[in-house]
From TrEMBL:
Protein name: Alpha-N-acetylglucosaminidase
Annotated transmembrane regions: none
Top-level taxon in the UniProt lineage: Bacteria
Keywords: Hydrolase, Signal
Pfam families per record: NAGLU, NAGLU_C, NAGLU_N
PANTHER family per the UniProt record, alphabetical: ALPHA-N-ACETYLGLUCOSAMINIDASE
Organism: Arcicella lustrica
Length: 733
């Protein structure tokens, strides 16, 4: 009887594993069909076990087929990406894709075997969900999940639809729609609402949005899990509606303020019994709606300091936050962004960090070293005092458009950490940028480390990158990337990429608070790369990735040129030279117009798709108008007319340049010219007060912008090169 029972158990386990494998393989096959539909029939997939608890893949040729084997759907997708990159010289990025596969697929002479040293490959930052993803539909999410799998990502942050979960929780607690109307933010501001920085801004949020995005989250999670990913879902951190004090007058609430022009938000004290109760309710409701993989993101003090730096207080607080998760899910693992330890290092010294972390068992917490390529916090915290942690590249702040990156830090940092005797419990590698869809080279390079455990030869890797991206490798394109490596991507001196003074609120200064123009290289040193790219049009000009880079490099050169051009009209103003002021200010306006024309050649650099996709989310005219206002506001004022964050998320986009930045500068120039004519000093304070109202009017207006590019990349780039190269070169001499 016992023997028969044991055999039954074995058969049952085999059946379960077989069913899981089939489901996993079906998802992998479907991914291959989406990526290379014309060649999908030449690929077969199979499962292989993990090695030492970590993912592995293999590739081999057999009977006219390419066999992709992996320990998960992500591993199989990574095998596909490796084959496409290394043997077909193809590439899939946000900004340019080359899938010109050979007619006959290359045959592998020997089996390829790759394993990873990183158990977790994390992806996304709360901010990414707004600076890039605010208006994504399922089609765009499906494409991104495929990109994740191809690049080895198995642990994505998954917070879409969180507002619906909270809606259900609070409705069951007796809150009315009116109570919640001032709580939920508009769709472009969820990241900061979720992190407790603001309430209500950009709302009121329609219930139709909540329901639609609850359904969208269901699709996102189903696809991610089918590929073997472990989504990280949100948990409760104490942020509650202002109406909470009416429903629970004895609750221990603390008003806090993000100090960025928004009203107070309310945090429920973790000592209050309601804290654990609500945290439990939220996770239970979320699990009911979306299931769970037991990893929960919670950041208790995102750019908000605790009321005291007493280690005992911080330890108790951390214990209570974790216990709130544990009550709902005994298997809960707390995933914490380490941003606070970087952004507020004056507060978070060793005793405070250690107290916060030590209160939670090591196997129940996972730390994200959020900006390791900028500052590796793990090095000054004894690798987070024994907690498992992940090496991340942050790279982009606010979705600003610029050529920038720490390429040497990215090529060396992960492997140096992996090989360090002081690395502690390093568990993974990841991408935690505030926005995506820019500087693809940095993201391709970072994720290449997933399947490597020895240092990469950067120059050799770049040659392969160029070949895959441009369809061929030439001496000129090699030189372009050597220049970029030494200039835009040298990662020195500045935290994040410089913007153009064009995107700043008009000023006589060379910079503004959120339009920072300091470069990490001499601008003249980028000019040879521009020249070589234009000269390479004949060889590479038909390739999508080349065209993107041609426009991006051209854009950067012209964006940099705005600063010396500004100096000319500033000098003319100070010398009371009206003729030269009008001459150079007109050249400045013409530069903006030319940049707009250049960027209109690529959808990557256009305002129209951003606005149109926002309006597409609306189910009626009022919702469409609300979402358009959210879309306009985030990338300009980032708040009301008096917002201190204006231009934080500025974009060099066609449509935005001609419709927002240009008329703003024109109004400024008209005021300056009038002052010169009257021999008066320009009243900058009066102008600033006036232009704020104009900006708010722009934010609250509606207009259709082109959603299709003009498809003249090479011609426009060549034309502007002929017009500007000599001018730009001479100004730096």
């Amino acid at each position: 009887m016992s023997k028969l029972f044991n055999q039954s158990i074995v058969l049952l386990l085999l059946a379960v594993n077989f069913a899981y494998s089939q489901a996993d393989l079906a998802a992998s096959k479907a991914l291959i069909k989406r990526i290379i539909p014309q060649k999908a029939q030449y690929f077969e997939v199979a499962n292989i076990p993990q090695e030492n608890g970590k993912d592995v893949f293999e590739i081999e040729s057999k009977s006219g087929k390419i066999i992709l084997k992996g320990s998960s759907g992500v591993s199989i997708a990574s095998a596909l990406n490796h084959y496409l990159n290394e043997y077909c010289h193809c590439q899939i990025t946000w900004n340019g894709t080359n899938l010109q596969l050979p007619k006959i697929l290359p045959v592998l002479k020997t089996k390829v075997h790759k394993n990873t040293s990183f158990e977790y490959r994390y992806y996304l930052n709360y901010c990414t969900f707004n600076y890039s993803m605010s208006w994504w539909d399922w089609k765009r999410w499906e494409k991104e999940i495929d990109w994740m799998a191809l690049h080895g990502i198995n642990m994505p942050l998954a917070i879409t639809g969180e507002e619906y979960t909270w809606y259900e929780v609070y409705k069951e607690m007796g809150f009315s729609d009116n109570d919640l109307a001032s709580f939920f933010s508009g769709p472009a501001y969820f990241s900061w609402f979720w992190m407790g920085n603001l309430d209500g801004w950009g709302g009121p949020l329609p219930i139709s949005w909540m329901k639609n995005h609850k359904n969208l989250q269901t699709k996102i999670l189903a696809r991610q899990r089918s590929l073997g990913m472990t989504p990280v879902l949100p948990a409760f951190t104490g942020h509650v509606p202002s109406a909470f004090k009416e429903h629970f007058p004895k609750a221990k609430l603390k008003a806090t303020n993000w100090t960025n022009g928004f009203a107070d938000t309310y945090i429920l004290d973790s000592e209050d019994p309601l804290f654990a109760e609500i945290g439990k309710k939220f996770l239970q409701k979320q699990t009911q709606l979306f299931g769970t993989n037991h990893f929960y993101s919670a950041d208790t003090f995102n750019e908000n300091e605790p009321p005291t730096d007493d280690p005992a207080f911080l330890s108790k607080l951390s214990t209570r936050v974790y216990e709130g998760m544990k009550q709902a899910d005994p298997k809960a693992v707390w995933v914490m962004q380490g941003w606070l330890f970087y952004s507020d290092r004056k507060f978070w010294k060793e005793p405070q960090i250690k107290a916060l972390l030590d209160a939670v068992p090591n196997d129940k917490m996972l730390l994200l070293d959020l900006a390791t390529e900028i500052e590796p916090v793990w090095k000054r915290t004894q690798a987070y005092y024994g907690k498992p942690w992940i090496w991340n590249m942050l790279h982009n702040f606010g979705g600003n458009v610029n050529l920038f990156g720490r390429i040497e830090g990215v090529v060396n940092g992960p492997i140096q950490a992996l090989n360090s005797p002081n690395k502690g419990d390093l568990k993974g590698i990841g991408l935690t940028m505030e926005a995506i869809e820019q500087n693809p080279v940095l993201y391709e390079l970072t994720m290449r480390h997933v399947w490597e455990n020895t240092p990469l030869d950067l120059d050799k890797w770049l040659d392969t990158y160029i070949l895959n991206r441009y369809g061929k490798l030439t001496p000129k394109t090699q030189e372009v990337w050597q220049i970029l490596k030494k200039t835009a991507y040298n990662g020195k001196d500045i935290r994040d990429g410089a913007e153009s003074i064009i995107t700043g609120r008009p000023t006589f200064d060379s910079t503004t608070i959120w339009t920072r123009t300091r470069l990490n290289y001499l601008p003249k040193d980028l000019l040879p790369a521009w020249k070589l790219m234009v000269e390479s049009i004949g060889d590479c000009g038909k390739n999508d990735g080349f065209q993107y880079d041609l426009i991006d490099i051209s854009r950067q050169v012209l964006a940099n040129y705005a600063l010396p051009l500004q100096k000319k009209w500033v000098t003319a103003y100070r010398q009371k030279d009206l003729a030269n002021f009008k001459k150079y200010s007109q050249e400045y306006i013409e530069l903006i117009e030319d940049l707009d024309q250049l960027l209109a050649t690529r959808k990557d650099f256009m305002l129209g798709p951003w606005i149109a996709s926002a309006r597409d989310q609306g189910t009626n005219p009022a919702e469409k108008a609300l979402y358009e206002q959210n879309a306009r506001d985030l990338i300009t004022l980032w708040g009301d007319a008096n917002s201190p964050l204006h231009e934080y998320a500025n974009r060099q986009w066609s449509g935005l340049l001609n419709d927002f930045y240009k008329p703003r500068w024109q109004q400024f120039f008209n005021k300056v010219a009038l002052a010169l004519e009257k021999d008066e000093k320009m009243d900058t304070e009066a102008f600033e007060k006036e232009i704020r109202q104009w900006e708010w009017k722009w934010v609250t207006s509606q207009k259709n912008f082109p959603t299709q590019s003009i498809n003249q990349v090479n011609a426009v780039a060549q034309s502007l090169y002929k017009k500007y190269y000599t001018k730009v070169y001479s100004v730096y001499e």
